[in-house]
C-alpha cells in the first residue's frame, strides 16, 4: 500500500490531463487537508514570530538541548559541554539528524523544516488511508474527518516544539499503513521499512509498536521484510548501547532516567508500584481516558472482524501498542508524549471502520459514523488547545530562557549554572553546569542515589569554576549552599512555563562588581513583560 507516493504520482499526472481530472485531484480530501494544515501552521508560525519580536523560537526549551548535542557531535563529542560526555537527548538518532542540519548552518530552521515536512506527510498519509478505507463516500463524515485529522496528529502544535515527536508520529502512521496494505496483499515498500526501523530509534516509546508491527508483518506473510527490519533495529540499538558504554554513559538517556516513573525503578517492589501507579494515572487522567476510549473502539472493531485473520492481526498490533503506552507511557508537556499513540489509534479506527462498514446495516452505519466523529473529535480537543497556545508558549520561552541565554552569552560571558537546560547551552562557548542533571552525569548519579543537596551543588560549582547560577528556587526544596548570594530575580508573566521567577545567585567564585555590572546592563534590554529585580548588596 503506497501511502504518500501514490498521491504524488496522481499530481504528476495532472499535467496534460482533462480539467475534470485536475479538479478531482485538487478536491480530494488529502489535498484539501494539506492545504488547510499549511494555512493553520503558517498562521501559528507568523503569530509566534510576531510575539517573539520577529524571532523564531520553539515552544519548548528542550529542543535546544538536541541542537547543543548536535553541535558537540560535529566537534567529536556528545553532550552539552566540550570535553564532557553526557546523555541529555531523548532520542537515538535525532541529535545525529540535527548534526546534519547544523553542518548546513540551518540552526533552528533545521528541526522546524524536518518537523513541518513530517507533519504534512502524516496528514497526507492519514487522509490517503481515509480515502482507501471505503469511507470516502460517507457524506458529511468526510467534512468532519478532514479537519479533525490535522489535530488528531497535532500537526499544527507539534512541529513548533522543535522536538522529534513529529517524525515519531509520521513513523507510527506510515508503519500502520504498511500493515493495513499488507493485510490486503499489498507489498510493503521501502518507505514502510524506513518508518518501522525509525520507530524505536526516534523515540524509545516506539519500541512497543515496532515489536508488535514486526510480528504483524511476519504473520501476514512478509517474513523477510520483518526480519530485515528487526535486524536493522537490533544492530542500531546495539551500536547505540556500545557507543554510550564506551563513553561511560548509561544505556538510557538522562531524560528517560530522571523523568517519569522510570526514576523509581530501583528494585522489584518499587518497580511494580511505579507501574501500577502509571496504569492508574492512565486510567484516571483525561489523556489516558481518551486513549482508552479509542483503544476500546479499536477492540470492538477487532471483535467484529475476528473472522478476518489479516484485519485482526493489524488491529491487535495497535491494541498491543496502546496497552504498552497505558502501562509505561507519559502524557502532557504540550501533549507531545502521547500524540503518537493517539494518531496510531486514530489511523487504526479509521481503517477498521472501513473494514466493518460492509457488515453493518444502514441504521448501524449511521450510528457508527456519529460515534466515530464524536470519538475523533474528543481525541482531538487537547491538540486544538495546544495549537492555540503554541504562539504563547513560544513567547514564554522567548521572555525567559531566551533572555537568560542572551544574558549568559552577551553580558556575563563566563561559566554559569542552570536547572533548565536548552537555550543556555546552545551556541554557548562557556561551560554550562546543569544542576538538574540532564546534562551533567555527576548530578544525575547523585540525584538517583538520593545524595544531592546544597553541599553537592557547592562542590560542583567550585569544580567547574561557576560564578553565577540561574535557577528556579522551587525545584530545590533542600535550598542552595549557604555561601551563595541571591543577587537578582527575573520575573516573567508566563502562561505555559513551570515557574515564572528565575533566581540569580552569585557563588564565592563570582566577581561581585562584574556580576552587578552585567545585571544592570542586561536589565535595560529586556522585553516589556519582563522585570529584573536586582537585589542591592
Précis, in short:
The protein is built from 20 helices and 6 strands. The protein is mostly helical and 537 residues long.
Question: Can you tell me about this structure?
Answer:
By secondary structure, this protein is mostly helical. It is built from 20 helices and 6 strands. The protein has a 6-stranded mixed beta sheet, with helices on one face. The longest helix has 51 residues, at 362-412.
Topology readout:
Layout: H1 5-12, H2 19-26, H3 29-51, H4 63-74, H5 94-103, H6 109-131, H7 140-152, H8 165-183, H9 190-202, H10 206-219, H11 223-246, H12 254-258, H13 268-284, H14 286-304, H15 309-328, H16 339-356, H17 362-412, E1 416-418, E2 432-434, H18 441-448, H19 454-463, E3 468-471, E4 485-491, E5 501-506, H20 512-523, E6 531-534
Parallel strand pairs: 1-2, 1-3
Antiparallel strand pairs: 3-5, 4-5, 4-6
List keywords for this structure.
disordered N terminus, mainly alpha, 537 residues, 6 strands, elongated, single chain
Shape: elongated
- DSSP strand tally: 6
Low-confidence stretches: 1-15, 261-268
Which sheet architecture does the biggest sheet show? Answer: 6 strands, mixed
* Estimated share of beta-strand residues: 5-15%
Q: Give the number of helices.
A: 20
Structural class: mainly alpha
Strand order of the largest sheet: 2-1-3-5-4-6
SSE run: HHHHHHHHHHHHHHHHHEEHHEEEHE
Our Rg estimate from Cα atoms comes to 25 Å
Amount of helix: 55-70%
Distance between the termini: 70 Å
Mean pLDDT: 90
Amino acid at each position: 500500500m503506497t501511502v504518500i507516493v501514490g498521491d504524488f504520482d496522481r499530481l504528476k499526472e495532472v499535467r496534460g490531463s482533462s480539467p475534470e481530472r485536475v479538479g478531482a485531484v485538487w478536491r480530494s480530501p488529502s489535498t484539501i487537508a494539506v492545504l488547510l494544515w499549511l494555512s493553520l501552521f503558517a498562521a501559528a508560525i507568523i503569530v509566534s514570530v510576531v510575539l517573539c519580536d520577529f524571532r523564531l523560537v520553539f515552544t519548548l526549551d528542550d529542543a535546544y538541548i538536541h541542537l547543543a548535542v548536535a553541535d558537540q557531535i560535529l566537534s567529536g563529542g556528545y553532550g552539552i559541554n566540550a570535553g564532557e560526555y553526557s546523555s541529555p537527548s531523548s532520542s537515538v538518532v535525532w541529535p545525529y539528524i540535527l548534526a546534519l542540519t547544523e553542518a548546513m548552518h540551518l540552526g533552528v530552521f533545521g528541526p522546524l523544516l524536518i518537523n513541518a515536512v513530517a507533519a504534512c506527510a502524516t496528514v497526507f498519509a492519514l487522509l490517503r488511508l481515509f480515502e482507501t478505507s471505503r469511507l470516502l463516500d460517507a457524506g458529511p463524515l468526510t467534512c468532519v474527518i478532514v479537519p479533525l485529522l490535522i489535530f488528531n496528529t497535532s500537526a499544527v502544535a507539534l512541529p513548533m516544539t522543535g522536538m522529534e515527536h513529529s517524525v515519531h508520529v509520521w513513523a507510527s502512521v506510515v508503519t500502520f499503513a504498511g500493515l493495513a496494505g499488507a493485510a490486503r496483499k499489498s507489498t510493503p515498500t521501502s518507505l514502510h521499512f524506513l518508518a518501522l526501523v525509525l520507530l524505536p530509534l526516534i523515540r524509545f516509546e516506539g519500541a512497543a509498536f515496532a515489536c508488535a508491527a514486526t510480528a504483524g508483518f511476519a504473520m501476514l506473510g512478509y517474513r523477510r521484510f520483518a526480519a530485515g527490519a528487526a535486524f536493522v533495529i537490533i544492530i542500531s540499538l546495539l551500536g547505540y548501547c556500545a557507543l554510550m558504554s564506551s563513553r561511560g554513559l548509561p544505556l538510557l538517556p538522562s531524560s528517560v532516567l530522571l523523568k517519569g516513573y522510570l526514576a523509581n525503578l530501583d528494585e522489584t517492589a518499587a518497580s511494580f508500584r511505579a507501574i501500577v501507579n502509571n496504569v492508574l494515572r492512565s486510567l484516571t487522567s483525561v489523556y489516558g481516558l481518551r486513549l482508552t476510549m479509542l483503544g476500546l473502539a479499536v477492540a470492538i472493531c477487532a471483535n467484529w472482524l475476528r473472522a478476518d485473520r489479516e484485519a485482526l492481526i493489524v488491529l491487535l498490533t495497535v491494541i498491543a501498542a496502546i496497552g504498552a503506552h497505558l502501562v509505561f507511557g507519559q502524557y502532557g508537556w504540550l501533549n507531545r508524549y502521547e500524540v503518537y499513540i493517539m494518531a496510531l489509534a486514530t489511523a487504526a479506527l479509521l481503517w477498521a471502520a472501513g473494514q466493518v462498514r460492509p457488515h453493518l446495516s444502514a441504521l448501524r452505519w449511521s450510528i457508527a459514523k456519529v460515534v466515530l466523529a464524536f470519538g475523533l473529535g474528543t481525541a482531538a480537543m487537547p491538540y486544538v488547545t495546544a495549537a492555540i497556545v503554541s504562539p504563547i508558549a513560544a513567547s514564554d520561552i522567548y521572555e525567559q530562557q531566551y533572555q537568560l541565554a542572551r544574558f549568559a552569552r552577551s553580558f556575563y560571558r563566563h561559566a554559569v549554572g542552570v536547572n533548565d537546560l536548552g537555550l543556555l547551552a546552545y551556541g554557548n562557548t562557556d561551560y554550562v553546569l546543569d544542576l538538574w542533571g540532564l546534562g551533567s552525569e555527576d548530578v544525575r548519579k547523585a540525584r538517583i542515589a538520593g545524595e544531592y543537596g546544597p553541599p553537592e551543588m557547592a562542590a560542583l560549582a567550585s569544580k567547574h569554576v561557576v560564578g553565577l547560577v540561574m535557577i528556579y528556587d522551587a525545584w530545590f526544596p533542600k535550598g542552595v549552599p549557604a555561601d551563595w548570594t541571591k543577587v537578582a530575580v527575573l520575573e516573567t508573566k508566563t502562561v505555559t512555563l513551570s515557574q515564572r521567577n528565575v533566581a540569580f545567585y552569585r557563588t564565592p567564585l563570582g566577581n561581585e562588581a562584574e556580576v552587578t555590572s552585567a545585571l544592570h546592563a542586561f536589565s535595560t534590554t529586556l522585553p516589556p513583560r519582563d522585570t529584573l529585580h536586582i537585589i542591592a548588596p
